[in-house]
Structure prediction request, 729 residues.
Amino acid sequence: MSTRLHTISALVHNESGTLNRLSSLFRRRMFSLSSMNAGDCEQEGLARVTMVVEGDDGDLRQAVRQLNKLIDVIEVEDLSGNDSVQRELAFFQVNAGVESRRSILEIAQVMHCDVVHLEPESITLQATAEPSRIDQVVALLEPFGITQIVRSGLVAIRVKN
Amino acid sequence: MNTRSGAEIVMASLVRQGVDTIFGYPGGVVLPLYDEMLNWPQVKHVLVRHEQCAAHMADGYARATGKVGVCLATSGPGATNLVTGIATAMMDSIPMVALTGNVNSWAIGTDAFQETDIQGITIPITKHNYLVQNVADLPHVLEEAFYLANSGRKGPVLVDIPKDVFTALTGADFPNEVQRRGYKPSADLNPLSFQRAAHLLKEAKKPIVIAGAGVIWSDTSDALRELAEKCDLPVISTLLGLGNIDRNDTRSLGMMGMHGEFVGTRAVQEADLVIGIGMRWDDRLTGKVNGFAPKAKLIHFDIDPSEFSKVVETEVVVPGDLAKSLPEFVANADSKTNAEWWTEIRAWQRANPIVVPDDKKFVARHVLHKLNELTNADAYVSTDVGQHQMWTAQLYKFRNPYQLLTSGGLGTMGFGFPAAMGAAFAHPGKEVWAVVGDGGFQMTLQELQTAVENNLDVKICLINNGFLGMVRQWQEMFYDNRQSHVSMGSPDYGKLAEAYGVTFFRCSSRDEVEDTIQRARKAKGPVLCEFLVEMEENVFPMIAAGKSNDDIITDPLLKQHELVEAGK
Prediction:
């Protein structure tokens, strides 16, 4: 079976130790966790966690079942398919003197990045996009010299049932 | 509702849960609870000599009764000493509630004296755990802890309680029922799965059942026996499953796997259908997975869906609590195993018994063979881990569920003696034997004092071969017999027993075995029987780690002529 990235979303009780338990499970069972993202959700006391796991279909199935077994976890869904929207937030701090600033701003415009901060010698951009598009932005900005990249990891939502 | 302290709530919770005995050790932060305990004589507290043994005793209590075992320790080292016992219970899905004290809630995180993050430490080895930060949460947390420990696939639950939570007051009461959103004790039944399983069984020419501890913990031994009788099925028990079918039942083939009986291991390799019931295809059972049951389709019954396809791919999975699924399957199944399959099985069985040597040598097998006979296979028997454990599994013909207490998953040395004590506390007046080796016994023998203080009826069958026998066997077989740190000295057990005030018998020849066991059986209180056996005996059959179950190494004694077949 081939290895790829899977997106899993879990609705969990937001209690002492919950995130610890989730991450402990991935480490203990040797599932490769690319990112994990937790935040409050529409229900009080609960949180929704988006996890990106690398593995084959068997790994994914085990990961979902093991997550389901955790007492903190209310429900788990695989959001790898087409019925979900997935986004990542990223910041890029790029060297930008007078001579290169215009080129960087052109890239930002085409790639739908916002300028969040400007200094005489640098520019800070923000992108909210699918991870592949963020990778693209990274590639386009690299020639100018990127001094910092901050990526949030993926969040995903099911949009069709 | 009257205002109560956290300590009162803990004691009230124990009474409410029907807990009659707890195993623990006091310390600084649990002082308020130990003080409160004096007001609750209905809960017996057993003062152990090491917290690890409090956990093992609670575990033994649970394994021998099917009820939740409870242990208690103070913060820091008290809590960390429980860890091996909790991990042992986790691996074997034993219902246990472990209570620990912690430093005052306002001091947590400051590296206070005897502070440790026991919640963090036990996340991977508990079914669930709690740090109670508010006394008002305590009643519902405790109620939930017992519920989680004892429902679905059972397991240990730890509740960590800061000192100030024991003393704080609350009007909060226990909930009338526990509901944990998202917690489903067992998967829903799938009616189609019974039909598909029954259909596969009907088509099979060589079916066989491997039944595990799930049968014991769901109290479905009767359904298993009915299934075996109705369909004339051969039944193998896993190590932890021993007792799920009467070993004297003609359809029981005993244990299979690394040191299981030849017949079961062989039959699974030849079977065209293997029905796993309440078991998890452990590596000690399957051997090399892709050589396991090569001709068979597999059916898997289990309460825990995460066990499906974890190790092996199965043709049909039957989710749900065995208490519901097994009787349904029995109702659906309507085939009979054909006679040729049984003829093959009986031939393997006749040709490859577990042999008890009939020469001058005095070996552990003589002891276990006699122990089985003299106790009518009806005692509670615990074991440690190693050769004596496997010989016990092979030679003691367990008749009932909850009769064998052994650390199967974690393989914890030092487990046997305290676990037997837990069983003895649970069943006063019943015969309880701890079968231990000289290695494991020396890990937890300080509990002799606990046994003496309680005048506990527990008999210790100490198989002393002066070696860590199983490790030595592996060094002999796989490391050119280069013995590295396996020779094990012991104290003079006679003097040790005298020092503790324990009745002692030593046996150094085959002729004395019966007499020794019978004298131990008649004695009251704790008894230590030391059997000085041949030093370098090996356990057979054997399948080397990582090898296929086809590569079974049989007992060299089978080739000799004068055999005494075990049990005959």
